[in-house]
């Protein structure tokens, strides 16, 4: 393997070792050459002699060099056509006759690289004795240009075996032969000629590593395997491509000359070590062409786009448009005319900076507003030459004088950039009929250091307030008063006070009832005295939380008249004007009941404390010689009726009186209806007593529940 690698590097040395094994092989007798890099290749000075032999006389021999600055004469000598300081790292020479063609590679290296390589070669010769060692198989590397034209198959090289054995055959294997992609290469079993069956594409596969071996008639391997390297020589068959678009760059207006805007790079699929992929960039077209047709320059090697005009010309506000489009070309072969090209469009946007302050379109604005009205009263207009899509254009307004009561506010209309001046607190004509505001405007973004706001960035707004007939105002509002319920009809509740804010109009005021839900009140239309027309009842459904609410109107004499509304809250104090009520009024008991506690009575009162409980429960005088029942007080609100003996089945009316604690107290004399029923098998029969049939269990349960609730 070491020997074969060295052969690829310096075949002119190693060929000496195998000279006696070689037959005539069509093609270059040496595939790889080394030239020491001079400071400059001088025109017409011979650099190298390349030996090509098609083994049939070299009829119509022609050479082609990958670099157009070099030429190979018919005798094989390589010359530079002009003084060349940089030829790259490699040249490729293609030779063709009627019978064969081949490719040679010329590597351009430094002196140190070449001396070190030769030293290693001769050291290896000394150690291994290579010059005198014979090899059974000699498989020299093969170089094949891509995109060859038919006919195919085409001979590209030859494998040589030093020993001739009867029936021996060459066999080739590897990727491109018996592995995918199959069938690209084949070998003549007898002669060892290697041929290619179709055109190759270096961008698909650049190198093939094959193995060659020799077999006998039975197929047994007698030599090898040896490695056969086939390299595909690049042809300039791929155009440069811009793959990273869209390409958009930004540059601030007024930027210094030479400011980098963006970088554009193209890709070329050809061999990056050759001129086939050596790209150079150029601007083909600029749109628009003003203020200069050459606003930008592109570095031919790096692809950096920079500004080339003075900062004065890079003024966004004076440009026809702040957007420029450049058609950029990338050309391979180092930009030579023979190179292939690809193009792309670069869009460059000139970004705005805040170099123009906003200015009011006039020094003074006028506005008129009616008193008592809020909302926008005037739109202040400004001009700004900066970009409307940026904070360098958007305006910010401030009221700097004339607004001590904070009655005005100003906001920016985001669509028009106008200042919308609004009244946020109603104005009063009688207090001030005129207002003068001083307003300044600035940008959201700060101005650049050498620009300042001038007098045009402030304006005056003169506001005239128009008088409006305003409704009278009650003082206070709402009005509150406390009265006892049940005061006599015609009693005075309150005298209201309403004034007209239009002090300059000298108007009169009249009063009327607006809302009086219970119909209890009236108002004197002239002096505003409110009186009662009915009894005030705290227990009325129109009273909520002891408060009765009514509304009254004050109407001035304007044309048209204006109205003010006042609210009156009357807090009603309680009077003991409701007798207590008793519940329940019906009770049932069995004629043979052992528990003679008949019922628990409760009392309630619509009045408020202290006109309610504690209640006093009493039995009225009982008829007959024997007392049949008694009543026991359980607590402040409940008492219990108890039979003193079992009674016969019948209906009884028990007279009971309940008295509240008011001063004076009120008493309710009522009767409790008692039904004595027959009870058999847990069933109560009150039919003889005109009573409903009710389960005894339910009656007992109800009595027990009521009794329990009476004792906390």
UniProtKB/TrEMBL annotation:
This is Cadherin-13. It is found in: Cell membrane; Cytoplasm. Residues 169-242, 243-360, 361-474, 475-582, 581-692 form the Cadherin domain. SMART domains: CA, Cadherin_pro. The keyword Transcription does not apply. Coiled coil: none annotated. GO terms for biological process: adherens junction organization; calcium-dependent cell-cell adhesion via plasma membrane cell adhesion molecules; cell migration; cell morphogenesis; cell-cell adhesion mediated by cadherin; cell-cell junction assembly; homophilic cell adhesion via plasma membrane adhesion molecules. One of its GO terms (cellular component) is cytoplasm. Cadherins are calcium-dependent cell adhesion proteins. They preferentially interact with themselves in a homophilic manner in connecting cells; cadherins may thus contribute to the sorting of heterogeneous cell types. May act as a negative regulator of neural cell growth. It is a lipid-anchor; GPI-anchor. InterPro entries: Cadherin, Cadherin-like_dom, Cadherin-like_sf, Cadherin_CS, Cadherin_pro_dom. Keywords: Calcium, Cell adhesion, Cell membrane, Cleavage on pair of basic residues, Cytoplasm, Glycoprotein, GPI-anchor, Lipoprotein, Membrane, Metal-binding, Repeat, Signal. By contrast to classical cadherins, homodimerization in trans is not mediated by cadherin EC1 domain strand-swapping, but instead through a homophilic adhesive interface which joins two elongated EC1-EC2 domains through a region near their Ca2+-binding sites to form a tetrahedral, X-like shape. Residues 1-19 form the signal peptide. GO terms for molecular function: beta-catenin binding; cadherin binding; calcium ion binding.
